[in-house]
Amino acid sequence: MGIRSEKERCTWAQFDALQLGSGWDEEDIGKPQILVEDAYGDSHPGSIHLNQLGEQAVYGIYEKGGHPARFHVTDICDGCAQGHDGMNLVLASREVICDMIEMHAGFVPWDGMILSSSCDKSIPAHLKAAARVDIPAIFIPGGSMRPGPRQTTSLVAGDISLRQKRNNEITPDEIRDYKLTGCPSQGACTFMGTASTMQCMAEALGLALPGSALAPATMRDILAMARKAGRKIMELAAKNIRPSQILTPAAFRNAIVIHSAIGGSTNALLHLPAIAHEAGISINLHMINEISEKTPNLCHLAPAGHHHMQDLMQAGGISAVLKELLDGGMIDGSCMTVTGKTLGENVAHAKNRDPEVIRPLDRPYTKTGGPAVLFGNLAPTGAIVNRPAVTQDMLVTPGTAPCF
After folding, report:
1. Are 271 and 198 in contact (CB under 8 A)?
2. Model-level pTM?
């Protein structure tokens, strides 16, 4: 295959000289060149291990005759930003990361791009960038951390912090126990928060390899997925399969169906329209309601339920959920994906290994999906609620209503 930068190299000899000065050799100059960008950094568990995934992707690219170049724009952690002014920077970071990737992907005519992140804002930033740049691209999810003792997660922080503010409601030992076990490993938080939801959305959209959304950050599977992504990007570059061929209206509809079926984070419905906008596609809130009303909730994951991300992975993962929905005629199996095959082809042999973690369509947790969009005088343009997280006693709240 040819390389996209050939014209620029003939125009400006310094291009080659600068890359040779960076450790490339003359043979590398003529190879397909792949940008490998991750959110690696020391700031939190979701980014600390991403350099390892980038390294595996690099090996895969070399194996298939390409030459990789690595870039890093780290993200910031919603959890560390909680409770102080740092929270005001978190959503803005999504746009900054996306803009930086656009710059990295634009100053050289790359033949392909691999992106890897784990967390709430970096994943949608990467998916937005893939749509905006529109060169062959694969997203590698960074995986989730392991649950702590008795299946605890970082989500316990809310209760701990609340009791810390009250007299005699918590002991120093309880606080210390949480700090030592709440985040016991690298990876994203292990419940169905925004981070895990967006990893699942990347696979549902077709931009991540089948099975990669739920590979735990602590297991060898995630390294194997990253190596495979490195090999696969070379195939996408040769065939010029780009995100604009993957991120279609049907793909976004599939992702919203999956979101409803797994009871995903409401924040995903903030990010999916933003990603779709980069692809020139409009998602409105009424469409989300229409899909949710017809989509049964098949998974009951923490914080709404008692299962964790590793349980969903062991039950067959997003591929098994997709297969259930595909067999029920609820999603479009003809959508192209980064495997170079359709979504239907990808999940043809997927199996549901645990019908309690992934309920079959005829025995769902609820007959409607997770999200509901509410309209009224308090939110005339719409507000999103996650139905599985709403218990019966929350539907009516006695109290005094101040009148103004």
Report:
1. yes
2. 0.93
